[in-house]
Amino acid sequence: MTRPSDPLAAVAAGHDPGPFALVRREGADHVDLFTGPVRTADRLADLPLPDDGAGPRTLAVVPFRQVTERGFECVDDGMPLEFLTVEAHRRIPLAELLGALPDAAVRTTDAGFDIADDEYAAVVDRVLADEIGRGEGANFVIHRTMRATVQGDPLAAALAALRRLLLRERGAYWTFLVHTGARILVGASPERHVSVADGLVEMNPISGTFRHRGETVDRAELLRFLHDPKEVEELYMVLDEELKMMAVVAEHGGQVVGPYLKEMAHLAHTEYLLAGRCSRDVREVLRETMFAPTVTGSPMENACRVIARHERAGRRYYAGVLALLGRDEQGRQTLDAPILIRTAEISPEGALRVPVGATLVRHSTTAGEVAETHAKAAGVLAALGLGPDAPGTGAEPAVRYADDPEVQAALAARNAPLARFWLEQRRPGALALRGLAGRRALIVDGEDTFTGMLAHQLGALGLAVTRRDWPDPGPLDGYDLVVVGPGPGDPRDPDAPKMVALRALLAELLASGRPTLAVCLGHQLLAGLLGLPLHRRDAPYQGLPRDVPVFGVTRRVGFYASFTARADADRMTGPYGPVELSRDPADGAVHALRGAGFAGVQFHPESVLSQDGTSVLADLLGHLLDRPALSAHGAADRG
């Protein structure tokens, strides 16, 4: 029988065991023990990944501040990027490890949230009104932290908490303890952020939270939760945001699988799985996917600004990741990275932090989001003696509601209105349209990587696509089409640098007659140049699918916008000639417009919410690139 390694014996004897990590992955009958020295790195690219053998080589503890590598804003708290170089790796049977871990209650004092419930509720109100309501994004995650002081040896307390999590929590992707010498992290994270194995990159967005009390799950309440528009749309929005990331790291973007129900001791979540082929260095994959929208928001870059504005304190390791890097038997790189949520951080002096956040969307209520933070923290707090265990918790639930036929039907129904482009495996070239071979498109990104998904759709239709950021779109010569893409912000702002730059770009394109497609923010700015008034909507259209008229055909498309252009007629003559408009019959909101050499759409044809998005794009390409427009039932109707 394998004997538990010396770190546990050292702790029991009151000695410093040195750095180590214990990791149980979902469904495993063993726990991995990693030991070795801990060092720090400045960048993810600096994490070592030697090629002299198979197996785990490096375990990194990635703080939230690492997001600055992508140029994103954060409150910089100076937390280091630490990594354990795996010099020894042992597998310990789960039962044996449980017998070696301390079976003792964790004692703490001075427990309380750093932000009281009423203060957190006020922050929720401000974000809903000032950020989502003003077009800064579709959803944002704002966190708070339970703090306490551990009595006695912090590492012994963390090992005792790990034992309780292994016994009492379920549904975790990783249950773990990492001791670096400078800190201890112990938790049960439900969410894989990103993994790479056998050339396949996978992401696992989880959103939507059903709170329950263990054995007292109310099946009718669960079914109501699965049909709740707020919960459904919340998952759709993070799905879209992680598809944006997959569009960058996977050759053909991500294919969507699911949704599924993830059942835990105190709550249940809904989740999707995304998968795609990848040949990038795993450290680059990690960098390009910092960090999950389920713990930040969308669009990602502006979500980081919003977090900094409203939290006003660093996140330390909350919303970062653990990242296990290695190689397989063929020498190929591997990566497994759970999100650092449902995790306690304990200092050598016993300072305890349990951060937790709620996802704020347009349907959110202050009471609901306050309650969500309590529910999400419950499992870790119970393991630390700061809350009750859920009744009947253990390795397996008394009833698996994921196997219930009605639950499965409710989950399957969520895919019915979504774009088949992202749900079905796509054979390269299957959607390519005649006449587009050799033609090139430039997408100008307005700080929303929806443009990555747009690039995959346009590429699937036959265009060669280049993406550039709005501050430096580069020369326009050599492109058959320029797409002025989406992004956050108020299109009416006359002085915002991004709005000034994109207006100037659109004016240049219109004056030159170069074929131009404008999406969402680009569409709003184009409408303004054509003389249409812009209005802030009474209620934001964030993550909202709708059936709307698009040039005579009803289309199912997804909106992410708080502003819209309005018009009183279906046709107008602007400074660049006649313009055809597709409007909402109720309020005149302009969903789409087109003229000689230009077109704009307020919605996102690339979104997973846009069931007819690929068909809309194909028709617009027919209009813009001197090809006959495809019919509503023609070859383009495959998306």
UniProtKB/TrEMBL annotation:
**Alphabetized InterPro entries for the sequence:** ADC_synthase, Anth_synth_I-like, Chorismate_C, Class_I_gatase-like, GATASE
Q: Which organism is it from?
A: Micromonospora chalcea
Q: Tell me what reaction this enzyme catalyses.
A: chorismate + L-glutamine = anthranilate + pyruvate + L-glutamate + H(+)
Q: Which domain of life is it from?
A: Bacteria
Q: Which residues form the Chorismate-utilising enzyme C-terminal domain?
A: 118-376
PANTHER family (alphabetical):
AMINOBENZOATE/ANTHRANILATE SYNTHASE, ANTHRANILATE SYNTHASE COMPONENT 1
The record's annotation in Pfam families points to: Chorismate_bind (PF00425), GATase (PF00117)
Q: What is this protein called?
A: anthranilate synthase
